[in-house]
């Protein structure tokens, strides 16, 4: 096939992009989105500060714009994200203890209910593990409500939306030899053994000099899949340019295709100028919307 989405679909997968609602009026952006991608992830619009800006007051306008655009184009939507230490609204940042636990679970229930049956997957919990070598949970107001906060969030999401795949999503979990990867692996194994409802693990895969694409990436994906969960590459971007970057994009695609339970790949933006990265050229299209060598390599690997 001649596009990323159609080529991924040939093996039952998707190729997605993070989308910002305020760019849906940019015709170059939307032209590429509609032509190349068959899945979207709202870049910020489903985060806690966007969907519950005041406690108990839910706001879905921008997220719903993305969902309705995706539906009109036959694209899937990955929901991102229900529970996270970052991009919390001010009211939540200031909460703790039992009140925060109740507020977090209410948020999960309300937002998952609003989108019930409409999404392919939810990143229920994002980035709950610390960086570094101790494999510890990240310290956060949510973690301080009790170590069981993650499973509580997954149970609430399942109760609200039983049909949508529920994912744990994180970064720096790509290298099989890193402590953070092993810590998340142990959590997923524990959840599966105790019947905590988890269906998938998302690997953000923001590759750069500090956390480069690892040669054991395929081992990581297949090892998690062997626990009985699906895996997905959820926020891919690769620092660099030219042939080196293109080769790495091809390797990532090959690794997903080699793992039967790898559902698909999402890049974190469309053009280099859409990237959340302050500088660099980490994506598949240049600032003018032209296909880069990285695009050609990714497509050829699909
Ligand atoms: C980023 C967005 O791309 C930015 O627009 C925003 O300012 C900050 O968040 N990990 C995640 C994403 O899970 O939600 C982050 O998205 C990038 C890192």
UniProtKB/TrEMBL annotation:
Residues 1-301 form the GH10 domain. Keywords: Carbohydrate metabolism, Glycosidase, Hydrolase, Polysaccharide degradation, Signal, Xylan degradation. It is an enzyme of class 3 (hydrolase). GO terms for biological process: xylan catabolic process. Its EC number is 3.2.1.8. The keyword Hydrolase applies. Transmembrane segments: none annotated. GO terms for molecular function: endo-1,4-beta-xylanase activity; polysaccharide binding. The active site is at residue 235. The keyword Signal applies. It catalyses: Endohydrolysis of (1->4)-beta-D-xylosidic linkages in xylans. Belongs to the glycosyl hydrolase 10 (cellulase F) family. This is Beta-xylanase. The chain holds residues 26 to 327 of 443 of the full protein.
